Amino acid sequence: MFLSDLLVVFAVTAVVVFLFGRARVPSVVGLLVSGVLVGPYGLSLVADVESVKLLAEIGVIVLLFTVGLEFSTSRLMGMLPLMARIGLPEIVGTTVIVTAATWWYLGTFAQAVFAGLLVAMSSTAIVLKSLADRGESGTPQARIAVAVLLLQDLLVVAVMLVVPLLADAAGTASVPTAATAAAHAPALFANPLAAVVAGMAVVAAVFLVGRRLVPAVLHEVVRQRNRELFLITIVLVCLGTAAITAQVGLSLSVGAFLAGLSLAESEYGHQAFTEVLPFRDTLASLFFVSVGMLLDIRFLVANLGLVVATVVAIVVAKTLVTAVPAMLAGFPPRTSLLAGAGIAQVGEFSFVLGSRGAEAGLLDARDYQTFLAAAVVTMAATPFFAAGLPLLLERLARGGRFAGWLREPAAEPGGPALADHVIISGFGLNGRNLAAALGEFGVPHVILELNPQTVREELRLGRDIRYGDCTRAPVLAHAGLERARAYVIAISDPASTRRSVRVARELAPAVRILVRTEHLAEVDELRTLGADEVVPAEFETALTLFDRVLGLYAVPEETIDAMIDRMRLENYGFLRAGRSRRQDVPPGSPSGPPGASWKDVGQGPAAGGEKRS
Fold it and tell me: How much is the pTM?
């Protein structure tokens, strides 16, 4: 039963990842080991392996969708030079090196080329998760890595079509042939060159249509104020776009990335990212488990020397073949080496390509198992290698000889991240007034709002307003809560206000949280949850009336102001108790001893006292 298999997978994975976490081993390694344990070459605890792999593939789709959400069109266009100057040399260089190194062993040139294509592909899922875990997603080496990975994904269809052609050239073709491949492929992709050109055209068409259509559809969806409908629509966009690109021969990952990219610069991108995030982490974990299921431990132990030598050769070659073009493109040596180390593993697409090649006779059973073992080990080694290389480079830089060559590069020019700002949740009357006042004094601020029409209108006016639920930590993180000076909650939903205070305090312990609430009864609970200041609307109204009425009786202005300030400092204790307090009250004030009246502190209107307005 699939449900019981899934239960076993998550149970074993939870235990292994927990133990690995205690030992400070990256979670990716724990996920791969979990796959080895539950897989057919381990304890064989899972019967329906194919269903697990299907969920894992959906996990990769969701992962690429969230990557697209964190990008922007300008950022992607900026990557085109990196794709041409670093990505293309990486793919060609790796293929050439591996071809030259394995020709003598595999027997034919076509088989050696196939081995080179297998190794040239890197793991998008592994790289992105490792970057996210280390907090390096915005670094220059991350930009290089993502550019190379995107180019690899775009070339997937051409590489798939090359497999039967290589099988024909090697004389190993059995069932798959060039003729049958062409028959099953879309007519648009009759040859590899046409595949690349047509693939680029399809990518551009899907992106342009998605960028126009998807935000318009989501605008109508969010007007319904139905979170479930919003989530269903997001999933439909993600999977639907992936399915469209798959139908024309491109990878599912490319479609998912384009779907995310089409939403990235819309007002709904942050909220979409927040809704999808839990599914991404869960399903992407299944992908790593499914990869671990491929590893035959007995073969690995029996051929440990061969596998280790293959792994070392792959890691060193891929690191250098990425670092050299990056340095030629003008990046510092340190950044170039870190980028190369990040993608120095065999990718998930290579497993699909390897199985096709094995069916076509390009790899025999032993070579195929060697490839699988080396590929899984490179994936498991990536977090260690990527984390250890910076330490090695720092040690070499301190040695003196390499200090200038391997020093930490200066920060790239660019606008500073938003900091020391105010975040306003809710753009009703109070939020608008606060934003207007902050704008008048030039205080930077970000607004979070769930009314799509308001967001769209204010965006046209140039405000930094974002569609997002203030009770979700990723939304607050995108708004820069940890760098903000203050967070103001001015929404009318008490339950959401409480959740937002709790989430904000957990996310940013140092930020000052100010809350506007309707009722005084909520003050104590909000302060317990973490609010620094709570302003109840009903008693602020009472204080205003109190101020105006006593002003009619010529009570001195400073006396009234002192009393109001004291009431606020005491959390409105005077009004909450429903009676006047006698302690610490200046003699002669309206809240003084029993019997005191306005006559004791000032002249009434009849005496000609000045009225307070």
Answer: 0.62
